[in-house]
UniProtKB/TrEMBL annotation:
<dbReference type="InterPro" id="IPR012132">
    <property type="entry name" value="GMC_OxRdtase"/>
</dbReference>
<dbReference type="InterPro" id="IPR007867">
    <property type="entry name" value="GMC_OxRtase_C"/>
</dbReference>
<keyword id="KW-0560">Oxidoreductase</keyword>
<keyword id="KW-0274">FAD</keyword>
<dbReference type="InterPro" id="IPR000172">
    <property type="entry name" value="GMC_OxRdtase_N"/>
</dbReference>
<feature type="domain" description="Glucose-methanol-choline oxidoreductase C-terminal">
    <location>
        <begin position="182"/>
        <end position="315"/>
    </location>
</feature>
<comment type="similarity">
    <text>Belongs to the GMC oxidoreductase family.</text>
</comment>
<protein>
    <submittedName>
        <fullName>Choline dehydrogenase</fullName>
        <ecNumber>1.1.99.1</ecNumber>
    </submittedName>
</protein>
<dbReference type="GO" id="GO:0008812">
    <property type="term" value="F:choline dehydrogenase activity"/>
</dbReference>
<dbReference type="Pfam" id="PF05199">
    <property type="entry name" value="GMC_oxred_C"/>
</dbReference>
<keyword id="KW-0285">Flavoprotein</keyword>
<dbReference type="InterPro" id="IPR036188">
    <property type="entry name" value="FAD/NAD-bd_sf"/>
</dbReference>
<feature type="domain" description="Glucose-methanol-choline oxidoreductase N-terminal">
    <location>
        <begin position="1"/>
        <end position="89"/>
    </location>
</feature>
<dbReference type="Pfam" id="PF00732">
    <property type="entry name" value="GMC_oxred_N"/>
</dbReference>
<dbReference type="GO" id="GO:0050660">
    <property type="term" value="F:flavin adenine dinucleotide binding"/>
</dbReference>
Amino acid sequence: MKRPNLRVLTHAETETLLFDGKQVTGVRYLHKGVRYDAYAGSEVLLAAGGINTPNNLELSGVGRGDVLSEHGIVLHHESQGVGENLQDYLQIRTVFKVRNAKTLNTMANSLLGKAKIALQYGLTQSGLMSMAPSQFGMFTKSNPDLATPDIEYHVQPLSTDKLGDPLHPFPAITVSVCNLRPESVGTCHIQSKDIEEQPDIRLNYLSTENDKRVAAKSVRQARKIMTANALKPYQPEEILPGPAMESEEDLVKGVGDIATTIFHPVGTCKMGSDASAVVGADFRVHGLLGLRVVDASIMPKIVSGNTASPVVMIAEKAADMIRKRTIKSGMSRAIYVSIWI
């Protein structure tokens, strides 16, 4: 953060990209109620993620003409793939009540318990406030014939009916399982020209037969794991989706009631050379000059595991390309800012 060529602005919202014909010259943004235009001496890099990158492009008039016209935005550049191809893992949060064990449910469900947790962290920077939510992870297969794992587990010493709800009043764990190769594909598009309004995110989870089959197999596999001899002293008792759900149809319905995003949206500005690709192999937006996208939105297909490390790799590769181009061309990397009064 102390680099002389880096300045980070917090609480700043991008309004639109700035254009000179097909050349992207900068960005317009709001910061503490003041509107600014920032002009790039070389290129603009868009790295707002799988949700906000397509949102920023559409607000700037880049995307599907029919989507933009619906919201009164003038089309500056047609790109059919913007906001399409949205993919994410569906997190199936199975819950098992346990005995003879402490979990976060009972440790943090009282003022005294919360005070003890806070005091331990305040004195030693250790304890529950210092740990990640998931204490155990595992990769496995929904089908033994697969060459590599397609299922990932995250096990947490806590439970709720759904994310954001209060912890259950009894000791329990969440055995969260997700399909690493979902076939279901969704969309993410603006709902208006107002930058404050959140986009319309449609993930279309469980919209393919294979995704439904893998979801049902995942729950059955989690149940089998919880019958292991090593876990018998804790007497696991299934709470969600519930032991009464046995058929694939019932399990898929139950999964739909308890599952949620695992916050890995990708693919909405995919890389490629076909008509639906938004960026090319050099991260540049097809048909525009001076604009690259560098984030998870460029993934044509979601990776078989957490997306953080692949995004770091994407950034490293893009940085290498940009650095070589800048050194070769001798182009200025300065940014010029003007203020709207």
